[in-house]
Design goal:
The chain has about 425 residues and is of the alpha/beta class. It has 3 domains: about 240 residues, Metallo-dependent phosphatases (Purple Acid Phosphatase, chain A, domain 2, 4-Layer Sandwich); about 90 residues, no CATH class; about 80 residues, no CATH class. Helices cover about 35% and strands about 20% of the residues. The chain has a 6-stranded mixed sheet with strand order 4-3-2-1-11-12, covered by helices on one side. A 6-stranded mixed sheet has the order 5-6-7-8-10-9, with no helix packed on it. The chain has a 3-stranded parallel sheet with strand order 13-14-15. Strand 5 and strand 6 form a beta hairpin. Helix 7 runs parallel beside helix 9 and helix 10 packs antiparallel against helix 14. The longest helix is centred in the C-terminal third of the chain and has 20 residues. The radius of gyration is 26 Å and the shape is elongated. It starts with a strand and ends in a 6-residue tail after the last helix.
Length: about 425
């Protein structure tokens, strides 16, 4: 029987930018999370006494130049070497852009496959042949799998490949290949990297992305880790093992039946309690999405700052220090059948104008021109990313108007609006 771990996309010390902008962000815990996940990988390999570890690319994070990152990786590989565990790795697109990949000397138990052509390592004592080829440049657009050698007779054959596979996974389509390309080689197992979502493409032969070992933002949610594989005469047996030390989650709150902001808050607390239980007490970084046609819309949209803070406070209370609310997005709308203000009155005129503006924001005015001077004065970090101000984006404008309308009506219809 052969046993090994399949991991990929470590992205050690991935620079998580702009964390200081987020109130209450556990900056140090987030920045050290990839290292702690690699430590967990090494500990799992030693505890299980596996024969070897496969790393399917992207150990480093592009042009990251801190050599302490490379030294940390080497130290964990040495830890495996002391336990008699070999490591096989290929360079991914991020590794090809890294200076450390080219210059850092790795321990003797680590085998890095060539980038010019596929290589094969035979482990005769185990009856295993590992085949692999790394990226020579940050963008490899040819089918590397096509050049892999056929399976060696009498061996358990394993392919190690960094690839976008068939595409359609929100990752760059590097080293594209099809399942037929992989099956044609006759291997028993394909260990893939590049796609950060854990995914099984085939069970015969077993072809899988292990996903990354640590989520880094709200688009990398849920448990992250590696695959533990044993192969005997019956074929591969595969199990997932989480390695992450802080977990990203998106909590979607359906506010449709909520009468006011407090009802939405209660629903959020119930959902968060369930999510904490599901994740076994692991610290969570949570993005909250509140949506639905709801009677609470006016309350939420008129006082968004208040309800964002209420959500943050409730998260801190429920999590007892284990929850960080990364962002709260309020995307509610009024329920059908709600009578608008008198269409002939001033509030009705404002609503009509906002509706027209929402339907055609660039046709009624040029927000880019109106905000041009302000945009020049804003710091760059306020204009970048999904958090930024984007007056040239119709979707951003529409979302902003959804919040502005109720807020404006609240201020105009109340003598003493809430702060």
């Amino acid at each position: 029987m052969v046993s090994f771990l399949h991991a990929a996309d470590l992205h050690l010390d991935s620079p998580l930018l702009k964390l200081e902008r987020y109130e209450g962000a556990p900056v140090e815990a987030l920045r050290s999370a990839t290292r702690r996940a690699l430590e967990n990988l090494a500990a799992l390999a030693v505890d299980r006494g596996v024969d070897f570890v496969l790393i399917a690319g992207d150990i480093y994070d592009g042009t990251w130049r801190d050599y302490n990152t490379g030294l940390f990786f080497a130290s964990q590989m040495s830890r495996l070497g002391e336990a008699g565990i070999q490591v096989f790795l290929v360079a991914g697109n991020h590794d090809a852009a890294s200076r450390m990949t080219r210059s850092l000397r790795l321990p003797e138990n680590v085998h890095r496959f060539p980038v010019e052509e596929p290589g094969t390592v035979r482990l005769d004592e185990l009856g295993v042949a590992v085949h692999g080829q790394g990226f020579a440049t940050p963008a490899v657009n040819r089918n590397l799998a096509a050049g892999y050698p056929p399976a060696l007779p009498g061996y358990v054959n394993i392919g190690l490949l960094h690839t976008g596979a068939m595409g359609g996974n929100h990752h760059a389509p590097y080293a594209p290949c099809t399942l037929d390309d992989l099956r044609s080689k006759g291997y028993d197992y394909w260990a893939l990297g590049h796609v950060h979502e854990r995914k099984v493409l085939s069970e015969r032969p077993f072809v899988a992305f292990s996903g990354n070992i640590q989520g880094r933002h709200a688009r990398e949610t849920g448990p992250k880790g590696c695959l533990s594989v044993t192969i005997d005469g019956a074929g591969p047996e595969v199990a997932f093992h989480p390695l992450d030390t802080i977990r990203w989650e998106v909590l979607r709150v359906d506010a449709a039946s909520c009468g006011d902001g407090f009802a939405v808050l209660d629903r959020f607390q119930d959902l968060l309690s369930d999510r904490l239980a599901e994740n076994g007490g692991l610290p969570l970084a949570v993005r909250v999405e509140i949506a639905g046609a709801t009677p609470a819309h006016g309350d939420l949209a008129a006082r968004p700052g208040r309800w964002v803070n209420e959500i943050r406070l409730a998260g801190a209370d429920a999590g007892a220090g284990r929850v960080w609310i990364e962002r709260v997005n309020i995307r509610t709308s009024p329920p059908p059948g709600i009578d608008p203000p008198d269409a002939d009155g001033p509030l009705g005129e404002i609503l009509t104008f906002l509706d027209d503006l929402r339907d055609d924001p660039k046709g009624l005015l040029d927000p880019e021109a109106l905000l041009a001077d302000l945009m020049k004065k804003l710091p760059r970090e306020l204009k970048e990313g999904e958090d930024g101000i984007h007056p040239d984006d119709p979707d951003w404008l529409a979302g902003t108007l959804e919040s502005v309308g109720p807020l404006l009506l609240e201020r105009l219809s109340s003598r003493k609006p809430d702060p």
